[in-house]
Amino acid sequence: MFARELATKTRLVILAMTSILAGALSLQAQTPLPGPKPEPITGSISGRVINESGQGIPNVMVYARASVTFAPRITATDSEGNFKFDGLDSALYMFGTAAPGYVMPAPDPEAEPVYYRLNESVSLNLVKGGVITGTVLSSAGEPVVQVQVRAVLIRDANGKAPKSVGFQVTRTTDDRGVYRLYGLGPGTYLVSAGGRNSFGSNGAYDEDAPTYAPSSTRDTAAQISVNSGEETNVDIKYRGEPGHAVSGIVTGMPEGNPSPFGTNISLMQYDNGVPINIALAYTPPGGKAFAIYGVADGEYGLSAQSMSAPGSSGLSETRHITVKGADISGIELNIKPLGSIAGHVVLAKSEIAECKNKRQPLFSEMVVAVRRGEKQKPAEPLSFFAPEGVPNQSGDFQIKNLGSGQYNFGARFFARYWYLKSIVQENSATVPPAKTTAANSQTDLAKNGVTLKFGENISGVRVNLAEGAASLHGSFKLETGQTVPPKLFVYLVPAEKESAEDVLRFFANEIGSDGAFALNNLPPGRYWVLAQVTPNNETQPEIKGRLLTDAETRATLRRTAEAGKLLLEFTPCQNVVDYQLPVPPQPSQKN
Known about the structure:
Blueprint: H1 2-24, E1 42-50, E2 61-66, E3 73-76, E4 82-89, E5 93-98, E6 102-103, E7 121-125, E8 127-128, E9 130-137, E10 148-156, E11 168-172, E12 178-184, E13 187-193, E14 211-212, E15 224-226, E16 231-233, E17 236-237, E18 244-251, E19 263-271, E20 274-283, E21 289-295, E22 298-306, E23 314-316, E24 319-323, E25 328-337, E26 339-348, E27 367-372, E28 388-389, E29 396-402, E30 405-412, E31 418-426, E32 442-444, H2 445-448, E33 450-452, E34 457-467, E35 470-477, E36 488-494, E37 507-510, E38 516-522, E39 525-533, H3 551-564, E40 567-570, E41 575-582
Parallel strand pairs: 1-7, 9-16, 9-17, 18-25, 26-34, 35-41
Antiparallel strand pairs: 1-4, 2-3, 2-5, 6-8, 9-12, 10-11, 10-13, 13-14, 13-15, 18-21, 19-20, 19-22, 22-24, 23-25, 26-29, 27-28, 27-30, 30-33, 31-32, 31-34, 35-38, 36-37, 36-39, 39-40
């Protein structure tokens, strides 16, 4: 009995940390490599938590996590909603907050994380959460008591699917069969009762297949819209159909040195590559067997992840299984060590007079990140390790706990007059020679990325930052009565032929309703300027920079921009302001 209670408490602690870090503060950054420790730069960050009306929300918890640490710092707002963190070391910080009945607006799945630095001010906006409530009745019309009901987010308020495991809220019904799910962010949800669960037990309904509202399987489930501050009634007629069991063993864990947190086994169901459902089994330290009950017929991905200390965690490859009319047993999930990427950030100063006395980027305010390059690749199970690294004071960085796959590189830094010049790696056995350039025997990682295997440790990556960046700030020239069309972007495309394949010279910025735009950290040189409305049959994420690394997309943009004959040339450290560009005609609508 004691062992079961201990395991349950451990699981609840892990789940709580997952909710806080993944939902409010994003995922854990990597610990920087050791290096020289100069006199630390310390300071404070203050801010305010407000509601939709701009009023401060008192007595709510605020979480601040530096990009170099795991555990967040926590404080509370005062009676006016203000908060302040003192004694902070120089770093990039992410903030989150939680208040009963309120939620933070869902971030754009394609947007980069929002970081804050010392002495900056933070405004955290909370909106009133929506509510889904209703009654769960049996086929005989009787209340179904103490069955778990869950709502899983499948699209946010802007119609975009989440890029990680969808947010979900779970509650049990009372003695009347009534449930109430509150604190839901605006968006579209699937609501189900009974069946499989994440951590813990559903009691009498463990082994039932989930019943989706109104009385359906997953394929025919109703999609429930939730708005901020509104309540939606969704009754469920409980089917009470038996589910199936998925069971097996976990292998590959270090013998004699099991994970102190045990192992999570994740069962995920996908919608166009996005996980919309998840059930978790748990094996305690030293355990191997697992079982997940109440699984309905369908296609799933099954994987295991050890919860070891940073640098020694492991992950199994995802097993794709089909549940159809019967239990599945005897599955073996082999946990393999995760890989890493290590390198160095190089800062190249400029001797040009216009660039004298400009602020140099701080390594402590920099992040080198990798992102999976495969399209529609199913997400990995819950992860406590973000795919990013923070350079130490010598510029060395390491990105740990990476699964197998193809990764693209990027860097975030905060210095107006610096730009990302290149991300390269010297030739080695880990990089196919066909992707190298004959001139310098280097691989252009910014363009080609890198393919990593389980347990592989890649080194020798060099991120080159150079001083001399320019900037472009302007607006679109609107005629009287004219408005900015939706999905309008401004692009900068390199005009020099020798730079046609330099992915770090392609820039894009979506234009707001006021017509203003800003492009910063631009490498000096000549650019074609293009304003273009995205056709309705193309999705927003396809033009947010990810496909700008695609050769065909780059070539198309270059041809279109060159035909427009709008040319700009930037000199080192030049700031172009009040630039005006005519709005292009909006593409005709096709029936």
